[in-house]
Amino acid sequence: MSAGPSRAPGGGLLVAGTTSDAGKSVVTAGICRWLVRRGVKVAPFKAQNMSLNSFVTREGAEIGRAQAMQAQAARVEPSVLMNPVLLKPGSDRSSQVVLMGKPVGELSARGYHGGRQEALLGTVLDCLAELRGTYDAVICEGAGSPAEINLRRTDIVNMGIARGARLPVLVVGDIDRGGVFASFFGTVALLSREDQELVAGFLVNKFRGDVSLLEPGIDMLHGLTGRRTYGILPFRHGLGIDEEDGLAMSSRGSIRASEVSEVSGVSSPVGEDILRVAVCAVPLMSNFTDLDALAAEPGVVVRFVDRAEELADADLVVVPGTRGTVRALEWLRRRGLADALARRAAEGRPVLGICGGFQLLGAHIEDEVESGAGAVDGLGLLPVRVRFAREKTLARPVGEALGERVEGYEIHHGVARVTGGEPFLDGCRVGEVWGTHWHGSLESDGFRRAFLREVAAAAGRRFVPAPDTSFAGLREEQLDRLGDLIEEHADTDALWRLIESGAPAGLPFIPPGAPV
Q1: Which SS3 state, helix, strand or coil, does residue 214 take?
Q2: What span, in angstroms and rounded, lies between the C-alpha atoms of 450 and 428?
Q3: What domain range includes position 166?
Q4: Which of 44, 158, 166, 174 is exposed most, by the fewest CB atoms within 10 A?
């Protein structure tokens, strides 16, 4: 596509994957950014998202952070229509169901897949239809794999939505994991004839090396499936923005200043101290994307920890949000982290609690909603009493702290009553212990720099925040890099034909177990 496609209202595409974490979210964002740069009015969509990272839209609805990021890639305001169903895990077997931006209850996996999910198909199709009636193109993201044959009957996010809306399907595979050709072939072969008719082809993600070495396999895959490969995207560092899964933080490890510099092109300040941030990797961690803005600051090193000794050399310890405040509190005590936090507070060393982390730093918690634990003593580091309400607070507050304007968003059942201390973003501060319900506050550049100056002073560091780091600007650069990946390494003319006209007719059926 050279000068940009003609307008085609209602065009659509489903980006599916051979596995979870194959790259569906970033590919969807990349396609959105590529299209909007070509003058296409585009929106993202994910019928059902399972994530502990969420966001609040301007209409006060809770959606997945990934869809908010994709909306930013498309340069449109996030809407609940873009993610009508959000599942927030509370354990291995149950999740809070958020429907059209509001929580409607807790369901076990069996209860959800046993009937509730199937009943939601009409809702998600209506949302998709409304988006397609408004935008030139809607780029939909699947979940997991479309070949989850045990869940196909109640599927509303992969082939269920593709069949219901007649969307062409592009299957993304992560070649860095290995086995991508088997995954592509197996994904198609496990689908019914009607589902296979919509699978147009494949997109290879995270390739390292000489593309010419891969081409014989691409040709063989076409011969086996009758489906083409629409692009081979090279491996790039630093593109996993706003990940969905807060349950797999062990794979995230440390966010090092050097890595952020490689991505952003910003170097750490010469001759200044590095500021070290330790994040307590509490169970059911939510909105760990709050820490991305700290990691984007040159000279700041962020790492996730689960042992008390790992707090010893930290200049700042963050207790992040969690979907299980009481469970996280018990975990901190069991691992000795609670005592380590108390020692830090007594020594005047900085601690920041965000949302659930703020709640457990308080003196007392009454929870008959999230855990059913009733009255529980908190860590007692802040003069706060928390009572869990059945109605969830969803808000987009704006305020001021440390002389700087701050924007954030709130997602919590806990209602905090502050009985002392210094006011801080609707929470409080006592000494060097800070607490707030506001997610996203560190994305406000002036406030982040002012906060880091306070932390550095308390820690005795010579760290000076970079005066011109713009988190929003860095995010835009990342989204542009995603758009560049699509534009430079995918067959964009063929992709547009898919979006505009649907899957090619006459794609062959591959029976399960077909000889190869």
Answers
A1: helix
A2: 16
A3: 13-239+476-501
A4: 166
| Structural domain includes residue 376 | yes
Residue 45 domain flag: yes
Q: How confident is the model at residue 114 (pLDDT cuts 50, 70, 90)?
A: low
Helices (H), 265-417: 292-295, 325-334, 337-347, 356-361
Q: How far apart are CA 47 and CA 140, in angstroms?
A: 8
Residue 371 sits in the same domain as residue 422:
yes
Distance CA 428, CA 92 (A): 33
- 248-266 pLDDT, tens digit each: 333 334 443 333 333 334 3
Q: Among residues 157, 153, 123, 163, which one has the least CA distance to residue 140?
A: 157
Q: State yes or no: pLDDT of 39 exceeds 60.
A: yes
CATH number at residue 285: 3.40.50.880
For residue 308, count other CB atoms closer than 10 A to its CB: 17
What distance in Å separates the CA atoms of residue 27 and residue 15, rounded to the nearest whole number?
8
183 Cβ partners below 8 Å, 6+ apart?
18, 19, 173
pLDDT per residue as tens digits for the range 137-169: 999 999 999 999 998 999 999 999 999 999 999
What is the arithmetic mean of pLDDT over 395-423?
Answer: 97
> How would DSSP label each residue in 192-234?
-HHHHTTEEEEEEEEE-S-HHHHHHHHHHHHHHHS-EEEEEEE
Tokens matching residue 9? 């209202």
Bridge partners (DSSP) of residue 50 are 87
| Residue 468: partners with Cβ closer than 8 Å, 6 or more residues away | none
Within 8 A by CB and 6+ apart from 309, the residues are none
Cα Rg for the chain, rounded, in angstroms?
24
Do 181 and 310 have their domain in common? no
d(CA 196, CA 143) in angstroms, rounded, equals 17
The DSSP element (H or E) to which 493 belongs, if any, is: helix 492-501
Q: How many domains does the chain have?
A: 2
Do 316 and 287 meet the contact criterion of CB atoms below 8 Å apart? no
Q: Is the dihedral of CA 303, 308, 311, 312 positive or negative?
A: negative
Q: Are residue 97 and residue 215 in the same domain, yes or no?
A: yes
What distance in Å separates the CA atoms of residue 413 and residue 425, rounded to the nearest whole number?
Answer: 17
Kind of pairing, strands 404-407 and 398-401? antiparallel
Cα dihedral across residues 354, 360, 363, 367: positive or negative: positive
Shared domain check, 398 and 293:
yes
Question: Are the beta carbons of 43 and 82 closer than 8 angstroms?
Answer: yes
- Tokens for 117? 């999910």
Q: Which residues are catalytic?
A: 355, 439
CA 400 to CA 167: how far, in whole Å?
Answer: 46
b/e map 21-39, b = 16+ CB within 10 Å? bbbbbbbbbbbbbbbbebe
Please check whether residues 214 and 287 belong to one and the same domain. no
Could you tell me which of 462, 461, 406, 411 has the C-alpha nearest to residue 434? 406
3-state secondary structure of 345: helix
